[in-house]
Amino acid sequence: MNTAATIAAAIRTGRTTATATAEAALADIAARNAATNAFTAVTAARARAEAAAVDAAIAEGRDPGPLAGVPYAVKNLFDLAGLTTLAGAKIERDRPPAAQDAFLVRQFQAAGGVCLGALNMDEYAYGFTTENAHFGDCRNPHDLARVAGGSSGGSAAAVAAGLVPLTLGSDTNGSIRVPASLCGIFGLKPTYGRLSRRGSYPFVASLDHLGPFARDVGDLALAYDVLQGRDPADPAQQDRPVEPVSARLGAGIEGLRIAVADDHFARNGHAEAFEAVAVLARALGATRRVTIPQAALGRAAAFLITMSEGANLHLADLRERAADFDPGTRDRFLAGALLPAAWLVQAQRVREAYRAAVMAVFQQVDVVLAPATPFVAPPIGQAMTEIDGQILPIRPNLGVYTQPISCIGLPVLAVPLADPGAAGAPQGMPIGVQLIAAPWREDVLFRVAAALERAGIAAAPAPPA
């Protein structure tokens, strides 16, 4: 699969058509999706209609948009008109189909994108592995015996496998950055409030973000530019101007203050996670180290807020249809429903104090490097691993480095190490690094990511045969 930018250029200049591109992608998904189980629904009729509309626009001399004929797919918590929004759950199968597309889907469609379907995820986005009891496990394209990460596992696996060049996912505690790291692709969690969440199934409204995945920085920037737009229907969205980043990818990193996170982000993982950060730091000439204060407390607050808000959303089904939940998800929701109100109030206080402390760090630096995941993708079904001499559960600890960042809404770009072997990654499995900035500074993240890509330090591995 070519890049989104290459596909759009070929279609716009007549070297191929959107229809031919869509048919080839649909055939590829039919032949190869069974390996990863990334797709839960393929919207072939919709894809053909959208591709035909792009071809008609070109034939009439109209601009079809920056994503002219580019195939994409979305996590199955995004509304697609005429399709039931599953959010990874058996319970949602009984709901009526969506009446209209999610806001971000409409942004892609208006830009000429062609939607090929919906993608696998953890039930109700509550997980980090996409081991789904209802729709099957999503498998890592680089080793089918390993997890793809989650909860946007299908979104990452589809891009990593080369089935589509762009996908959309969600990130509440790390659900874009974790699968991006484990599958070896680029993923963006924008600032909280930057992109509209209308038409997406919520998990934790005060923490939910939506964002894109891609195989290179240019495609990720292209997707991000298209997705921006004011939507008064999302009360969390901030009224800020659209800030395109594609034109700034060549700006370089001169003048940017880049540092490496220590303390919490230099513990709690395996050697490959820290060495991946070191590889990027050496390439960027980043020698400064900073402490993100009280990161463990911020993570603890995020855990409690997630449990409580998530459980509240599903109380009726927990009472009436408990047996229809994925057992692991159900137990966490039940625990959240029993949390004392005082704990939630205290968690919100801690979160606000933590946010203020972290904002002070960004008075001194522009970008912070931190691990994205504590280790490479574990085998499907493995429950425990050793970290710092302790045997700990894998699922919650995959978010050890992402959770403290998303709970205060900072923008993060996950970049894959071009040579995982340089970090000592087991079996050469992919691993990524978080680039973190102050709110609304996605532009500096793209500048750093583009510089790393140009230097050959950050890149997605080739899709496996």
UniProtKB/TrEMBL annotation:
Which InterPro entries does the annotation name?
Amidase (IPR000120), Amidase_dom (IPR023631), AS_sf (IPR036928), Carboxybiuret_hydro_AtzE (IPR014087)
Q: Which organism is it from?
A: Falsiroseomonas selenitidurans
- Signal sequence, start to end: none
Recorded protein name is: AtzE family amidohydrolase
Alphabetized Pfam families for the sequence: Amidase
Q: Which residues belong to any copy of the Amidase domain?
A: 22-445
Matching SUPFAM superfamilies, A to Z?
Answer: Amidase signature (AS) enzymes
